[in-house]
From TrEMBL:
Lineage, opening ranks: Bacteria, Bacillati, Bacillota, Clostridia, Eubacteriales
Stated name of the protein: UDP-N-acetyl-D-mannosamine dehydrogenase
Family note: Belongs to the UDP-glucose/GDP-mannose dehydrogenase family.
Source organism of the structure: Symbiobacterium thermophilum
A UniProt-annotated Pfam family: UDPG_MGDP_dh_N
PANTHER family to which the protein is assigned, alphabetical: UDP-N-ACETYL-D-MANNOSAMINE DEHYDROGENASE (PTHR43491:SF2)
Length: 440
């Protein structure tokens, strides 16, 4: 088939490559000129994704994937553009129900713009697939309506929603092997979309209706956000009860049907902290738990600041070394990263902050420089690379030997043997000791 993919981001671009390598003729469209230039030179704008460079080479050379700044006629159009959220707390206070959503609403302008951009190229029988994560009802109320407003005869078109669930850092493998949900506005549209994905998806493809598919994606990420909030809440409970949450959770997880996620300094990325609001927005009156979980996770950066002040034992911290800017381990993406929010909180508290992250320019500088003269080390992202740090060497660099580990990454006794006072998020045994220290 001839397929036009709108949005060359970390979903649209690999999807376009996979469709092209399956034999389709694909036009990849993006408004970002530097992305187009990079791709036209056969280079990649998405790094650290195994297999993507070779895949792109093959479809770039055989011409099955070409990139452009505008759509062209095709049998199928896939919209894979961002759906961030808009946060207007002031408006939230004034609008009934909005306050329940804490003022967060889906920003669908990219979906709307991408939809309008394909209007002139649509022909009867074309298939239009929305992949972006959206509030339930968007395929019908935004995509179809925008095309109608552009004067398109939508009765002859097929519409479907096909959310993705790939984990950044494992993109290609998951795009091919994960099961997929496809939701059609009509049964025919669902089947047409399913057969398109069958050309590269080896996972099972389930067909449902569009609204169900839109909600399923949000359910998956909301499930994760609520479970992370539960882990974070038990971290605070354990601090209060002088219990080590890391030990308690590993014991609880030995139960055959219990699987606690890991406490952390907050929930980042452009999915987990955002998608629950797409549910809250459409059902504010019945989402108490989902809203509470968002409040717990959004409160973690402030909790980390309190732990750091407790670790400092009343002495002011001049300079803090932060390990990890990225929102999660082993990838380089600082979008909505709690690390950057925590860095800001520390600066507002009068501290100087030096940040290191091997994956995120401009923080991928020398670790020694960042640690030099630090009054405290704050581990915020559990990059595997940090496992190799030698506490005894680090001891020679820092001004004060204080370590706050918010991911349970390091072995406390190794750092203590090098002379560090170590506090871990959720480790109540240590905070009891520290409280006594402060009292002294
Ligand atoms: N986090 C914790 N504790 C945990 C797990 C995660 O604090 O036990 C934090 C991470 O540090 C990070 C945030 O939550 O800041 C999100 O991490 P993540 O592992 O959920 O990574 P994402 O957001 O890149 O991927 C999620 C995945 N969704 C699910 O696992 C249900 C992925 O499958 C989705 O495709 C992706 O969101 C998305 O794009 O929707």
């Amino acid at each position: 088939m001839k397929i036009c993919v709108i949005g060359m981001g970390y979903i649209g671009f690999p999807t376009a490559c996979l469709l092209a390598s399956a034999g389709h003729h694909v036009v990849g469209v993006d408004v970002n000129v530097s992305v187009l230039d990079t791709l036209r030179n056969g280079q990649l704008h998405i790094v650290n994704e195994a297999g993507l460079a070779d895949l792109y080479d093959s479809v770039f050379i055989n011409g099955h994937l070409v990139v452009s700044d505008r759509p062209s006629e095709a049998d199928a159009f896939i919209l894979a553009v961002p759906t961030p959220f808009l946060h207007d707390p002031v408006a939230a206070e004034n609008r009934q129900g909005e306050s329940a959503a804490q003022g967060y609403r889906a920003d669908l302008r990219y979906v709307e713009n991408a939809t309008r951009s394909i209007a002139p190229f649509l022909r009867p029988g074309n298939l239009v697939i929305l992949e972006s994560t959206v509030p339930p009802g968007t395929t019908e109320n935004v995509v179809v309506r925008a095309l109608q407003e552009e004067g398109v005869d939508v009765s002859s078109l097929l519409f479907a929603h096909a959310p993705e669930r790939v984990l950044p850092g494992n993109l290609l493998h998951e795009l091919v092997h994960n099961d997929r949900i496809v939701g059609g506005l009509t049964q025919e549209a669902g089947e047409a979309a399913a057969s398109l994905y069958k050309s590269f998806v080896q996972g099972h493809i389930s067909i449902t209706d569009a609204r169900t598919a839109e909600l399923v994606k949000l359910m998956e990420n909301t499930y994760r956000d609520v479970n992370i909030a539960l882990a974070n809440e038990f971290a605070k409970v354990c601090e209060y009860l002088h219990i080590d949450v890391w030990e308690a959770m590993s014991l609880a997880n030995r139960h055959p049907r219990v699987n606690f996620l890991r406490p952390g300094p907050g929930v980042g990325g452009h999915c987990i902290p955002i998608d629950p609001y797409f549910v809250i927005e459409v059902a504010p009156a019945v989402t108490d738990l989902i809203q509470a979980a968002r409040r717990v996770n959004r409160g973690m950066p402030h909790h980390v600041l309190q732990l750091l002040l407790r670790l400092a034992g009343g002495e002011p911290l001049r300079r803090v070394a932060i390990l990890g800017a990225s929102y999660k381990a082993n990838v380089g993406d600082e979008r909505e990263s709690p690390s950057l929010e925590i860095a800001q909180l520390l600066r507002e508290a009068g501290m100087t902050v030096a940040i290191h992250d091997p994956y995120v320019p401009p923080y991928n500088t020398s670790l020694e420089t960042v640690l030099e003269g630090a009054d405290a080390i704050l581990l915020l992202t559990d990059h595997e690379a940090y496992q190799a740090i030698d506490p005894h060497f680090v001891r020679t660099l820092v001004a004060r030997a204080l370590l706050l580990d918010t991911r349970g990454l390091f072995n406390p006794s190794e750092w203590e043997s090098a002379g560090f006072v170590v506090l871990r998020l959720g480790d109540g045994r240590k905070s009891a000791l520290l409280e006594s220290r402060i009292i002294q």
